[in-house]
Amino acid sequence: MSTQKKKKSLLKKLSSKYRLAIFNEQTYEELFVVRLSRLNVFTVVGTLGVILIVLVSLLISFTSLREYIPGYPDAQQRLLIVRNAQRSIL
């Protein structure tokens, strides 16, 4: 019974709504108001993290930035590898 209670309380904590408000310091006027839940925040942060990782990976793999990562050959080394492979075939 306690595990069900813990699951319900965790689900309730994740789905509870909170209000994020940004005020003008001098007039105390609300400039921006958003209703959030913890689950929404975790979802957005996780999605943005995955998108950032994918974009950085694509940037490195399809540009010349990969030459600065150890293990990737530069253009001159790739040319030598191809020439050596062609010589070994002939």
SSE pattern, N- to C-terminal: HEEHH
Oligomer: single chain
Please work out how many helical segments DSSP would assign. Answer: 3
Which ranges are low-confidence, i.e. pLDDT below 50, for 5 or more consecutive residues? Answer: none
Ends: how far apart?
A: 75 Å
* Beta strand count: 2
Biggest sheet architecture: 2 strands, antiparallel
Averaging pLDDT over every residue, what do you get?
88
Write up this protein.
With 90 residues, the protein is α+β, with helices and mostly antiparallel strands. It has one domain. 60% of the residues lie in helices and 17% in strands. The protein contains 3 helices and 2 strands. It has a two-stranded antiparallel ribbon with strand order 1-2. The longest helix is centred in the middle third of the chain and has 25 residues, at 38-62. The relative contact order is 0.07. The mean pLDDT is 88. This is Lipoprotein NlpD. The chain crosses the membrane at residues 41-62. Keywords: Lipoprotein, Membrane, Transmembrane, Transmembrane helix. It comes from Geofilum rubicundum JCM 15548.
